[in-house]
Amino acid sequence: MARLSQKLLYAVGAGTLLFASAGWADDYEELVNLLKEKKILSPQEAQALIEKHRARLAKEKEKTLNGEEIKKLRKLVELKIGGKAYLHYDYTVNSPVSDKNDYGEFKVTRAYLDIKKYFDRKGENYFRTTVDVYKDSDGSYTVRLKYAYLNWRINKFLATEVGLAHRPWIDWEEHHGWLHRDLEETFIESKEGAHLINSADLGVNFKGKEGIASWEVGIFNGEGYHGQEESSHFGKSLEARLSLSLFKGFILSAHTVHSFEHKGEGFDRHVYQLHGVYSNHYFLVAAQYVWNRDDYKSGKDKER
To answer: What does each C-alpha distance from 255 to 172, 200, 220, 258 come to in angstroms?
Structure first.
């Protein structure tokens, strides 16, 4: 009778263990140790149950991580938040744009907050929003929208940006032929250089690459992301770039812009550019030739 009672108690204890494992996993080992103290389980049986329980918990945790938690983590990965700031100290010996009593200063020339929402694992389809912080003419820092576009892969050779998107040239040059945006804008953009176009505008940009070639073709408002659209007719800007990696380290590019702007008297603008860059681990050297013609309504042509 005593033996039968002990077996019955063992069965009840085992059932309780299973119930505890399913409902109160944190108390499982405590219950096993209690049954061991009551001599219902031998030390060897208790240890075996604890090890089996720990292995089951690890497996369930891995299963959960590969299931629901992975989905949650993937949702977070699909949203990428980044930023960039150009911080430096300038000391200018002689410059027409610097006050003679204030040649040296700490600067934040640009700061960007970048948010991308991806729609696929490859990172080819996404929506991007970029906020641009810059120093205004009165010395205060101003926030404006730099990019807000949908990037979508059409096929193997072609993708598109729709919205406030990249224009074909400047971003490409900054990453391939300049690499010093922290010091100064590119020549074609800088106010102290050609000052012809800027890097982003509202419109549609098509881009692609295959083999040694990469290209971009787009149609935009023409005034850029910090200019107001003032066309008196259709007046958009048609722009294109073709780049060829002719041999390792050397890229030859052609770029053109044809646009109409209406600010005051207005003008038709035609830009043609040839650009070559050679780079390796030790140095980069680039050269460009830019030809521009503005056909003003007044009949006065400006060529440079």
So the answer is: 11, 15, 15, 11
Tell me the CA distances in angstroms from 146 to 139, 199, 264, one per residue in order: 20, 9, 25
Beta carbons within 8 Å of 43's beta carbon, 6+ residues apart: 36
How far is the C-alpha of 112 from the C-alpha of 134, rounded, in Å? 9
Alpha-carbon distances, residue 91 vs 7, 104, 138, 149 (angstroms) = 90, 4, 20, 38
Secondary-structure percent of the chain, ordered helix, strand, coil, rounded to 5: 25, 45, 30
- Global pTM value: 0.69
- Residue 26 burial (CB < 10 Å; 0-12/13-18/19+)? exposed
Q: Give the H or E element holding residue 47.
A: helix 43-64
Bridge partners of 286, per DSSP, are: 277
Are the C-beta atoms of residues 224 and 201 closer than 8 Å to each other?
yes
User: pLDDT tens-digit profile of 135-153?
Assistant: 887 878 889 999 999 999 9
Whether the CB-CB separation of 103 and 92 falls below 8 Å is answered with: yes
